[in-house]
Design brief:
The structure is a single chain. By secondary structure, the chain is an alpha/beta fold. The protein is 56% helix and 14% strand. Strand 3 and strand 4 form a beta hairpin. Helix 2 crosses helix 16 (345-355), helix 4 runs antiparallel to helix 5 (98-106) and helix 7 packs across helix 12. The longest helix is centred in the last third of the chain and has 31 residues, at 297-327. The chain starts with a helix and ends with a helix. 35% of the residues are buried.
Length: 357
């Protein structure tokens, strides 16, 4: 039987799911639970909303691990992705020389695009995971991903950036003056006029900087490709587990079922489901009859309200049963609905206790 305790003995745990289901809180609580089990743990967020710091009661998070004290002698680390700093470090690692790395980093297009290049943030997230795992500083690393649509980008990232750098489009950009050939005279004049205008407005020699930007990456394609293969193997390793975080809302359950199918189709190992904000009120025998017996209207109203909650609880049980029937993924934990989201270590402790009753 799979349990949270078994999950915490994985090397990498990736929390996935749609927005608003409590992935950030769950990831932080898992790192805390691992620390309570004397496992060296860290939680990293690639969610651009940066909500993890709120769950931990922190003012800020960065790519540098921040130690979070659990109790005397026990702690876990927390960190958040910094795409620009990670990209800079990767350039320094794969460039043929410090001078080549400095040339790329000084390129004005690189400075503008290193935060915005398609797939860059997701690729850097995978690169940071690779780095942390190979440092062997932690027994378990917990990852808080963006909502599921973006998490798919995260999982596809190892190959996307390398495919882009090796594409024919990038080869064309290595000799961008060719953009001015093969078109009509009117087209060449229009494009030339546009490029000159851009140069005046921005101060960029666009063709030259574009060529420098692309050619600087050419020598690093092999390094990027090798690392992408390593990250791909890391994500498919038996030591990596994906956890579907959900609520019992019917629409959310349907989304979770679809995401589970995608993960399985891609060969990822899904360890199970953590359900948040689940109503679990036990059934009362004939609440209306009991209300009639009690002498005060308030007590009768309270019993009828309880009957409504019990009906919603039955709905939640049915939704989670449907999730299990469709996925056969074990329910690792069902965290009951609470009135306030954890925004402090005390609240996070209470949440972790629900994961590990």
């Amino acid at each position: 039987m799979r349990t949270i305790e078994h999950l915490l003995h994985q090397q990498l745990v990736i929390c996935v799911g749609c927005g608003g289901v409590g992935k950030t809180t769950t990831a932080a609580a898992l790192a805390l639970a691992a620390a309570l089990h004397r496992r060296r743990s860290a939680v990293i967020t690639v969610d651009p909303a940066r909500r993890l710091k709120d769950a931990l009661g922190l003012d800020a998070l960065s790519i540098e691990p921040r130690r979070i004290a659990v109790d005397s002698g026990r702690h876990f680390d927390a960190l958040a992705l910094d795409t620009k700093r990670m990209f800079d470090a990767l350039i320094e690692r794969f460039a043929s020389s410090p001078a080549a790395a400095a040339r790329i980093q000084a390129n004005r297009l690189y400075q503008e695009l290193s935060n915005e290049l398609a797939g860059a943030a997701e690729y850097m997230a995978m690169e940071k995971l690779h780095e942390l795992l190979h440092l062997r500083r932690y027994d378990v690393l917990i990852v808080d991903t963006p909502p599921s649509a973006h998490a798919r980008d995260l999982l596809a990232a190892p190959n996307r950036l390398t495919n882009l750098l090796a594409s024919r489009a990038v080869s064309l950009l290595q000799a961008p003056a060719s953009l001015l050939t093969g078109t009509s005279t009117v087209g060449r004049m229009a494009l030339s006029t546009l490029l000159k205008a851009l140069q005046r407005w921005t101060g960029l020699d666009l063709l030259r900087d574009l060529a420098d930007f692309v050619s600087g990456f050419e020598e690093m394609i092999e390094g990027f490709t090798t690392r992408a293969g390593e990250v791909h193997r890391m994500l498919h390793s038996p030591a990596t587990a994906f956890v579907l975080v959900t609520t019992a809302e019917p629409q959310t359950v349907e989304t979770t079922i679809g995401f589970h199918r995608e993960l399985i189709a891609e060969g990822f190992h899904v360890a199970g489901v953590i359900a948040n904000r689940v109503l679990a009120f036990p059934r009362l025998d004939d609440a209306d009859a009991l209300a009639a017996v009690w002498e005060t209207p308030l007590r009768g109203k309270l019993l009828r309200n309880y009957a409504d909650l019990e009906e919603l609880s039955r709905r939640d049980r049915g939704a989670l049963q449907r999730l299990h029937n469709e996925t056969r993924a074990p329910l690792l934990a069902a965290v009951p609905a609470i009135t306030e989201a954890p925004t402090s270590m005390a609240g996070l402790h209470r949440f972790a206790q629900q994961l590990l009753p």
